[in-house]
Task: inverse folding
């Protein structure tokens, strides 16, 4: 079976031509897939012969809802989607004044091993395909009946550890015949894979890079994030500088505030020193408590923010959405796995 949802308009055009169809059918097929059809039968303006070929040779299986939770507080919706191989991933839809933003997963599980994160507890099972990345946006939009204007690659998984599929996804979701979501409306969050940051910089895309920093010094960061044990924060900041030089895009640093671990005045001072003179934005996130972890949310978020701002560093505290529905990544999947143990490798 050919994974049609992972294919570009040009590839679908060639695919149709190879099957004796005119070139314009490729774009039509792409449009239908972007609208979230799950069978060839629904593609009513395609000839019967082509629909039969799609049925026979193409894989256009939809995501199916394993669980869905709607926040009573703010309307945030969290989906646990089942993929065609039985694995599950999470997608979160959040409403903001500027539109609907969807937070999507990039892998089934995660290999990065961050101490505070629920997504990595069972390790990485596999990468998502470009079509599965795209399907999260398509089927969330379809089910919720809300047009999606922004995408954040901040769900389960490390996007730069699945570089090629993520890059392909960006092309698909950005295409005018498809969802047509502009690069400036897309954010990609990474734990700091240097080679990936450099590769992305070379592409010169206008998306927003978010770096999950969580600590300004090697001692604290390496204790929390195994990825730091290789090259350390100096190399990470150097890569961020290169990224800014190439793209001109301000980098956003994520900083989950953990009680007694990374939230002291000493940490704030070290962070300010690292970011001084750079074009950066710090997003302070009160740690979400993860059942399997002893780490606790900080109670010094406001003081930390003030200390940064005094030093001229822009810092905001992230508004928490969907706190009543396990909306932070990895938690719903863990819960479902514990209850059903049905996940297959
Ligand atoms: N692998 C990517 C994207 C997925 S994680 C990355 O590391 O950026 C999305 C964000 O949630 C990251 O900033 C991650 O560090 C953060 N995060 C993970 N667990 C968290 C928790 N328990 N509380 C607050 N933020 C958390």
Result:
């Amino acid at each position: 079976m050919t994974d049609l949802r992972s294919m570009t308009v040009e590839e679908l055009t060639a695919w149709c031509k190879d099957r004796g169809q005119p070139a314009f059918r490729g774009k039509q097929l792409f449009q239908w897939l972007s609208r979230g059809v799950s069978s060839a039968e629904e593609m009513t303006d395609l000839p019967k012969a082509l629909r039969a070929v799609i049925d026979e040779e193409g894989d256009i299986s939809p995501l199916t809802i394993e669980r869905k939770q709607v926040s009573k507080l703010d309307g945030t919706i969290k989906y646990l989607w089942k993929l065609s191989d039985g694995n599950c991933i999470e997608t979160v839809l959040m409403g903001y004044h500027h539109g609907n933003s969807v937070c999507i997963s990039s892998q089934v599980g995660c290999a990065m091993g961050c101490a505070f994160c629920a997504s990595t507890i069972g390790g990485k099972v596999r990468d998502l395909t470009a079509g599965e990345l795209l399907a999260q946006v398509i089927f969330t939009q379809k089910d919720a009946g809300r047009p999606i204007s922004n995408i954040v690659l901040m769900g389960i998984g490390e996007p730069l550890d699945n570089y090629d599929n993520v890059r392909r996804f960006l092309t698909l979701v950005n295409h005018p015949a498809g969802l047509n979501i502009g690069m400036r409306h897309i954010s990609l969050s990474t734990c700091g894979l240097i080679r990936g940051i450099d590769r992305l910089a070379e592409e010169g895309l206008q998306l927003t890079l978010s770096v999950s920093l969580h600590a300004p010094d090697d001692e604290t960061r390496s204790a929390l994030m195994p990825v730091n044990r290789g090259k350390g924060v100096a190399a990470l900041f150097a890569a961020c500088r290169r990224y800014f030089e190439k793209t001109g895009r301000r980098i956003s640093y994520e900083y989950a505030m953990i009680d007694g671990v990374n939230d002291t005045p000493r940490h704030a001072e070290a962070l300010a020193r690292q970011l001084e003179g750079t074009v950066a934005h710090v997003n302070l996130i009160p740690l979400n408590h993860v059942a399997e972890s002893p780490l606790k949310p900080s109670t010094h978020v406001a003081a930390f923010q003030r200390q940064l701002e005094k030093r001229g560093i822009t810092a905001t505290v992230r508004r928490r959405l969907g706190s009543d529905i396990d909306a932070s990544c990895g938690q719903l999947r863990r819960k479902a796995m514990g209850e059903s143990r049905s996940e297959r490798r």
Remarks:
- The chain has a mean pLDDT of 94.
